[in-house]
Design brief:
Blueprint: E1 5-7, E2 13-14, E3 29-31, H1 40-43, E4 78-80, E5 88-91, H2 102-115, E6 120-124, H3 128-139, E7 143-149, H4 154-162, E8 166-170, H5 174-186, E9 191-192, H6 200-205, H7 207-215, E10 223-227, H8 232-246, E11 255-261, H9 266-272, H10 299-308, E12 312-316, H11 318-330, H12 337-355, E13 369-372
Parallel strand pairs: 5-13, 6-7, 6-9, 7-8, 10-11, 10-13, 11-12
Antiparallel strand pairs: 1-2, 1-3, 4-5
Helix pairs in contact: 2-3, 3-4, 7-8, 11-12
Bound molecules: zinc ion.
Zinc ion binds near residues 7, 9, 12, 23 and 27.
């Protein structure tokens, strides 16, 4: 099995050996279709990590490159919000080696980079992808440069440095950081291990879908809530559910509710007017740094996935984020502000659905909902 990338715009195929981060035409790269399988009799005997689904990941069957790198990521618990809400389920994604869901994508991406002979990785991040990449790169024996906005939580910067990575703190917003890293890549300073552009990242986050299927014994939820900045969990999960659908294991993909932060919501703005593409916005400030992406590169794919599931985009109001964080903490879940925004967005959706005149797809009283808790509170200020 030889994996190829395919350009989303011109359809040209590229071997990952090319180390391209986008097509020469400027288009985004995706992983071209490859044969996958789900041998559940075997899967159920394996350790509780995302690698139990290895026949669905882009590695040849006898590859062991991931075994030297895994930190036991994945197979995070699904627990009810509280005893009064047995159908509101939380997937506790911060129970990961570096305390965020990003470990799913980074573990696959670093394993692929290692197999390609990469010795130095570079990435830009609002924090969590950087902390994850620095940990896995260090384990793989690679050098690592991480570019973060100057405003990034000092705890995340400390976590990145602890793994031996070089941290570049860039003045200005998240876009200035993205710009700085692309300059570094274009002057050949290393391999761009981007959780936005590198399509292997989404091969890792797709295991989120497989776990939900397996952990709920195939009793699929009605609604899935996702925080959306660059869409790295939403898109991966969408690909995972598509694979389950094509494999005949599920009959439909649950409705996706995407949450953006008030102050930086280009996807929400596009969705409100039924557009298939999002225009960049000006980030006017939000505590939800993990989803404060003014110009998400994969905006078309994110919107396609939301429309295809009969989904919706909601904006989490600024003043509701801190109360949402406290409410989750009162139930035992200490999360970072971006994750609080996800829960605040869900509550806002419920409030609007109950008040709406039928414009919002409402939840049935017994609808089963899954909300991911993507990042641990201890990482934030
Ligand atoms: Zn192209």
């Amino acid at each position: 099995m030889d994996i190829h990338f395919v350009c989303h715009d011109c359809g040209k195929k590229h071997h990952p050996r090319s180390l391209l981060w986008r097509c020469p035409c400027g288009g985004l790269l995706d992983v071209d279709q490859f044969t996958i399988s789900f041998p559940f009799d075997e899967i159920k005997k394996r350790p509780a990590t995302m690698w139990r689904y290895r026949e669905a990941l882009p590695f040849v069957s006898d590859s062991t490159v991931w075994e030297a790198l895994t930190l036991g990521e994945g197979y995070t618990p699904i627990v009810p919000l509280d005893s009064k809400s047995p159908n509101i389920l939380l997937k506790v994604e911060y129970m990961m080696p570096t305390l965020s869901f990003k470990d799913r994508g980074v573990a696959v991406l670093v394993a692929k980079a290692k197999a390609l002979g990469v010795t130095k990785v570079i990435a830009d991040s609002s924090g969590n992808a950087g902390t994850s990449l620095s940990a896995y790169a260090s384990r793989a024996g690679m050098k690592c440069d991480i570019y973060v906005p100057e405003s990034t939580s000092p705890k995340k910067v400390l976590q990145i440095s602890a793994h031996g990575a070089t941290v570049h703190r860039i003045p200005g917003n998240r876009e200035a950081t993205a710009h700085a890293v692309i300059e570094a890549i274009e002057s050949n300073q290393g391999f761009y291990a981007s959780h936005v552009y590198n399509p292997f990242f989404y091969q890792g986050t797709k295991t989120y879908a497989f776990e939900i299927f397996e952990q709920l014994n195939g009793e699929m939820p009605d609604v899935l809530v996702f925080p959306v900045g660059n869409g790295s969990l939403l898109l991966g999960a969408y690909y995972g559910f598509q694979e389950l659908l094509h494999g005949g294991m599920i009959v439909k993909i649950p409705r996706f509710i995407a949450v953006q932060a008030e102050g930086c919501a280009p996807i929400a703005q596009a969705f409100r007017t039924g557009k298939k593409t999002a225009e960049p916005v000006v980030n006017t400030g939000t505590a939800a740094e993990g989803i404060a992406i003014a110009a998400p590169a994969r905006h078309r794919q994110i919107l396609d996935a939301i429309y295809a599931t009969g989904g919706f985009v909601i904006t989490a109001p600024k003043e509701k984020m801190e109360p949402a964080r406290r409410e989750l903490a009162s139930k035992g879940f200490y999360v970072e502000p971006t994750t609080a925004a996800t829960y605040a967005g869900f509550l806002e959706y419920l409030a609007q659905a109950h008040n709406s005149t039928g414009n919002l797809p409402g939840f049935e009283p017994d609808a089963k909902v899954i909300i991911p808790l993507c990042g641990a509170g201890i990482k934030a200020n």
